[in-house]
Amino acid sequence: MTNPKQQTLAAVDKRVDRSFDDVADHFEKKVYGGLKGEIRLAVLRRDIFAYVDKLSHHLGRPLRILDVGAGLAQIAIELAAKGHSVVINDISANMLIKAKANFEQLKMAHTDKNDFGEVSWYVCPYQQLTAKLSGESLDQPVEKFDLILCHALLEWLAEPVAIMDFFDSHLSPEGALSLCFYNPASFEYRNLIMGNFNLLDSLLSADAYQADNKKSLTPNYPVAKPQVEQWLQSHHYQTVAESGLRVFHDYAPLKRGGHNDPEAVIRMELRYSSQEPYKRLGRYLHILATR
């Protein structure tokens, strides 16, 4: 008879990196088709763009930026529009098709196309990216980046801790890592508010958050913030900024007062996203770290 430990190990062995190739349209609409996506991008822009300007000024040049597991790559595309050189990667060809379309649309809206930095696209798992960046040559040095964006990827990886070595290899000595990941505490807190106690009870005997359907965008294997912080510490990173994305919007089942004003919601989300204790309630957490 298989014991619980063996069952858990078997479940881990069955994990694979998730691709959204088959649900790219659903992803685009669900994640970025409304106010939730606007809040997410507003907080990330606030955290990242100011730091990029500061680092670029310090280095005296545009930055070399990598967006790994980029999805629709909105932040990376906007950084390219500011003149930085960007490499955009995702495991899903369909997601990058959408990202490329967004990039071309943004470029057409600019009067001076020369303002844009160089943009390269790589469709592959991140584990294959190092070789592709070097042209499959073992003689080429590993390419370094001043900023690595890794947004909403950890929770979809079979072995999320393994990507830390990838960051170590590709981050330049003065570079920064922008790590955004799903907050499992927010899942539990929201279900407490909604009274879904049976669901929470079921998690006590499960090794994963079980999605209701194949289109679900709730990660089955999210990584808790203390675990991520431990990984960063063990790889000699220090946090320079952290924020919560959607620290109250998702917890309000009754939309009243200011909740009916999208601009006011974004303004308040920005205000509280970097404040204790509210930032810990974000549905996603953003950590900006350096080595």
Mean pLDDT: 89
SS summary, helix count? 11
Helical proportion?
40-55%
Shape: globular
Structural class: alpha/beta
First-last Cα distance = 47 Å
Provide the β-strand percentage band.
15-25%
Give the total of beta strands: 7
Low-confidence regions: 1-11
CA-based gyration radius: 19 Å
**How would a crystallographer describe the biggest sheet?**
7 strands, mixed
Biggest β-sheet: strands ordered side by side in the sheet: 3-2-1-4-5-7-6
Order of helices and strands: HHHEHEHEHEHEHHHEHE
Main attributes of the structure:
291 residues, alpha/beta, seven-stranded mixed beta sheet, 42% helix, disordered N terminus
Please explain how this structure is put together:
The protein is α/β, with parallel strands linked by helices. It is 42% helix and 17% strand. The protein is built from eleven helices and seven strands. Strands 3-2-1-4-5-7-6 form a seven-stranded mixed beta sheet, sandwiched between helices. Helix 3 packs across helix 11 and helix 4 packs parallel to helix 5. It is globular. The N and C termini lie far apart (47 Å). The N terminus is likely disordered.
Tell me the layout of helices and strands.
Elements: H1 4-13, H2 24-32, H3 35-59, E1 64-67, H4 74-81, E2 85-90, H5 93-109, E3 119-123, H6 129-133, E4 145-151, H7 163-170, E5 171-182, H8 184-194, H9 197-203, H10 225-234, E6 238-245, H11 262-272, E7 284-290
Parallel strand pairs: 1-2, 1-4, 2-3, 4-5
Antiparallel strand pairs: 5-7, 6-7
Helix pairs in contact: 3-11, 4-5
